[in-house]
Amino acid sequence: MSNDLMPPTERRIPSPAREEILRRVLAGEVxxxxxxxxxxxxxxxxxxxxxxxxxxxxGAGGPGAVDAPAPADSPSVAGSEVPSPSPTxxxxxxxxxxxTGPVNVDVGVLDAADAARSAKxxxxxxxxxxxxxxxxxxxxxxxxxxxxxxxxxxEATGRVVICEHDGASDLGKDGNDPLPLLAPGxxxxxxxxxxxxxxxxxxxxxSFQTAAWYVADDQVATLQLRLVLDGEPQxxxxxxxxxxxxxxxxxxxxxxxxxxRVSYQTELLDASGNVLERLRxxxxxxxxxxxxxxxxxxxx
Length: 300
Prior knowledge:
The chain is mainly beta. It contains two helices and 22 strands. It has helices at residues 15-26, 112-124, and strands at 35-38, 47-51, 54-58, 64-67, 77-78, 103-104, 106-110, 133-143, 146-155, 160-164, 167-170, 188-191, 196-201, 204-216, 222-229, 232-233, 237-240, 245-251, 256-257, 262-269, 275-278, 282-285.
């Protein structure tokens, strides 16, 4: 019998490859072709920005934006490979699978050369940089749409500038203050200039992200942060404290109803994984409950 009408042999992904794909999905390492980011200005007022098909509302963290993926020449990471989208991919991005366990937001520490270069670029976002700029913190971190460096840079004057994604904030009240000192017995001090952001569409809560910088005592080895949606705890997002500084972020996966209530919790852990302190939970209310998508709403 002729084989002309027989269907082609089914092509299967080799088992090791399927397992690797599954591991990356569960670990939250799947990268979407676009990256949502926010700056961290010192202004405390909320901002409102219209986006196609929905509304993005931003708190103290600043207005949201949609960026292109990190370029191929983005800073290298010591001991880690930063995932990047395929240049030939044309499919519409789909939400990353909801992780079932802790999410390590750290991709890796930038090497010395890239850390120094990124520190100077960070300071220059706010004006000319002095000849001596030190990278106090330089880590590539994951986010909902990919990964980018997070930087804390200090000039010889003591001025400290923090940068995440494409925004920069000067931590000094007069532009020359060093990092805050911890009081005796105090484990952490949150640094100003951080905040939360969310996006709403006609179905409800489309996205929620929050991040914070901390100065930490030597006892604190790890920071972990998790969202709580309508009373349901989400997976912990975890980062290491490095040289007394930590930057932690967490984000939501999947669509949620309009009336979803959002809060988040932060814990401080020692080197053995024991909880040293649970910070007071933050209640963000129901971000999308009062958003009006009626044509012409909000116009005078």
